[in-house]
Amino acid sequence: MPRSLRLDSPVDLVKSEAGVINATAAMVGLGVMTVVGGVAASSVSGLMPIAQDSAARQNAAQVGTAQGLARIMDGKFTDLEGLEAGGYLPAYRAASGPRRFDVGSGQGGTCFVVISRSATGQHFFVTDLIPTPEPLTTSTATGCLSDGTVRSMADKLDSAAAGT
User: Fold this and answer.
1) Going along 9-122, which residue ranges are E strands?
2) Is the torsion defined by CA of 39, 41, 43, 46 positive or negative?
3) Which residues of 35-53 are buried (b: 16+ CB within 10 A; e: fewer)?
4) Which of 37, 41, 49, 77 has the maximal Cβ count within 10 Å?
5) How confident is the prediction for the chain on average, in pLDDT?
6) 111 and 143 in contact (C-beta within 8 Å)?
7) How far apart are CA 102 and CA 19, in angstroms?
8) Interval 57-68: pLDDT, tens
9) What is the pTM of this model?
10) Which 3 state secondary structure label does DSSP give 83?
11) Residue 52 to residue 109: CA distance in whole angstroms
């Protein structure tokens, strides 16, 4: 009697003519699932640094937006304490872990620099003239704060992340 082409379940694909699951088919299926799982795991681990850098960029952009609001409402840019006191940023809670960004304003509140640190250790910055987060390098000149001040802000974030 010819075998029906109708399959009632996926198990029918790995059954032999005798009705028992074929060991070879089961091993092939297990191998395929292992490969798929390995590819998925390696893909996710490769995306983690990208996601962490993206979060740092987003932090910098959000603080830059808060600075813009402070300038509209108060007529000047301000430091981190001023942003929190003015209600432009929520107050920092130590229980949420080390702060991942720092803010500095130029003399008289005419400009600002935000430095944000990624969990990867990469730093990003925004300023009043550069609203899109950019990587902070040793040759970066912000046009607002001195290079030493900017480096000090980044070092402070590194120390906080290291717990020192």
Assistant:
1) 101-105, 112-117
2) negative
3) eeeeeeeeeeeeeeeeebb
4) 77
5) 83
6) yes
7) 68
8) 999 999 999 999
9) 0.70
10) helix
11) 30
